[in-house]
Structures are given as structure tokens and as C-alpha cells.
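Subject: two folds for Thursday's group meeting

Dear M.,

Sorry for the delay on this. The cluster queue was jammed most of the week, so I only got both jobs back this morning. I'm pasting them in the order they finished. Each block is the input sequence followed by the predicted C-alpha cells. Could you check whether the formatting survives your parser before we put anything on slides? The first protein is the one we discussed after the seminar.
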Amino acid sequence: MRVYLPCTLPALARVVAAGEVGPAPLTGYAVTPALVEWYVSGDTEELEYVALTDAARASLRMLAADRADGVDVPARRVVIAAEVPDDVVAMAGADIEERSRVRIPVSVRMTQIASVHIDDPQAVPDVEAAVTAAFAADAGDADARFDVDGAEAHELLWYATQEIPDLLT
């Protein structure tokens, strides 16, 4: 099953150093039965895009949490796409806002990573605004939601796994 794991650039560097995404359990996003039921007319590619977008939103929350903790983290959303055996992935529940959320009880090895998706540097101003607004948007603030939507208007760029070291320099 293709699973999208939210990340940040510093966390991606730790993944490379450790050779895995961990520690488990991990929260990811995937094409779940709840997502398929909700998005009835979508094909697999559209459903995977929704899961990727949900993971990018979770990456934004990770950036906001790091900033709240005083961590200097670049304002670029990062999502790791990995192939995880179906029998390992557990549906995370029926949260209407995150129908694609899953739990993975094991670490994900580098060999399971298919690609990495990262914001283009041109998206940084909008992502920066969204990082500041993320928690307020989650609480229902319409103005903050507008800032988050501004970041989500930017497509994440696709990178092959062999390009990861270049992304970290």
C-alpha cells in the first residue's frame, strides 16, 4: 500500500542518517476505505492525491509544532511516499477531517521509500504564513484557514530517492 508520511527537512535528514522513518508507531495517510467511500467518483490517482494533500497538511502542523518548540525549521512541507505491506497498515479511525489517516506500528525502511515530495522554494512565503496560522486554522479561524489554503495551492515537487541527499545540502 502506498502510504504518505508527513515530514520536515530536518526530520528527513534524520531519516537518511537512521536509514528508516521512525520510531514506530507512525501516522501516515493512504487510500483508505473511508476515503474511497467519501470520494466515490475518484480514481486511484485522485485518491492518492487527497492522501498526499492530507500528509502535506500534517507536515505543516509538524512545522508549526517545531516552531512553537523553538526549532529553526525551513518553511517547506515534506511528504515521504513509501510502500508498506497492507497487513501492517491499520486504519486510524473515522475522523471526518482525515479519512485517509492510518497508523503503522513499525518503522519504515529507506528501501521502502518510493519518493519524496517537497515544496518549491517559491512556496516558502505562503508556507511561512500557513505555519503561523496552522493551529488557529485547525481551531476554525477562517482567516487562518485562508493562509493554510494559500500554502495548499502550491503543488509539492516530486523527487526520486537518489535525489534526497541533494535536497538536504
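Second protein, same layout:
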Amino acid sequence: MLSRRLFLAFTSAFLSSATIIPVAAFAKESNEDTEAGAKIFIGKLAEDALISLTKSELSIVERRELFRDLMRRYFAFNVIAKWVLGRYWKRTTDVEKDEYLTLFEKLMVITYADRFEAYTGEKLIVKKAETRGKSNILVHSLLERTNGQEPIAVIWRLRPKDSTFKIVDVMVEGLSMGITQQKEFSSVIRKNNNKVEGLLSELRKRVNVGT
């Protein structure tokens, strides 16, 4: 799985104590309007996560379900899952695809949701947004950490969808989390005679350990 440093950055990057402007329907008449909307979107994600996931009275089940809801609302989950599987997606059967999507979602929830219980006050500062190509918007932010530690650069890659956005990747200090996960999954598959079943077996183990 991801390194502890990447893990900390990813989970903490949801959180911010800054005042957030409510999300509205985003104008798409210019890049400037779209980029402004993308910055608001990331701010709203941080606000929602801070309000819903850091309550000490939440049970494990409750926190995981709240995280699952946030993930589905803010992330292009199926797009990410397919991209992470890479070229192997086309080689899988429909049954394998369904199980993979289910296991991948469970793994993300189990891996990240519980960590919000240990939130220690990190702040996400949204800096700027820029349009890349026809469909990507990069939102640059800084994760301000506690105890005098250096801030971490976090870049969110978004795509417009209807009147809002969806996150398709998160880059921490220049390293794509999607690519990192893709390399890991590919390695598991190669070690299992290039069979996706080998990855599914590994994901089943990880999910069972976390439940």
C-alpha cells in the first residue's frame, strides 16, 4: 500500500478550518469561471470531511459509511478504479470487473476512513487552479502540518461533470497516487501469471483483514 507519508497527506488533505464558500452551479463560460469553481469544490470537500468525519462519538461503521458517501460524491470512483487497473481492465470478465470495483471501494474505505479519528488539526490551504487540456483542472493546495513540520504540496486533478466536478487523481509532492496504486496492482498481477484473479485474491485478503 501507500507509504505512511503519502497516506498522511491524502487523508489530512480533506481537512481545513478555513471558511468555505458554498458550492453553487459552476459557470463554464471561461477558464477563469471553471477554475474558481474548482477551488470552491476542493474547499467544500475539506469542509464536509472536517464536519462529518472527525466526530469522536462516531463508531467505526458510521465513520466508514460517511467516508464512502463523501468518496462517491467527490471522486470519479469508477474512472479511478478502471484507470488503476490499467490495461488489465479489458482482460477481465464482467464478473471479475464487478468484484474488483466492489473490493476496490471497500479497500479505500477501510484504508482511509478510520484515520480521521486521529485528526490533529492539519489545515489545507487552496492556492490556485489551472486548466490543463480540454478536460482537466489542477487545484494546487498546501497541507499545513502541526509541530513545525514543513507543509506538503497537494494537487487535485478534477474534471467538470454536469454542474460540478469530480476528482480523478491526487498528487502529493509531485507523485500521483493513482499511478502509485496502478504500479502496485500491476506488480501483483504480474506475479500471478498476469491473471487478474491474483489481484482479486490479494484484495480479498486486505479487505478481510480490515473488517
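Two things I noticed about the second structure. The chain has seven helices and five strands. The first strand starts at residue 123 and ends at 132.

Cheers,
T.
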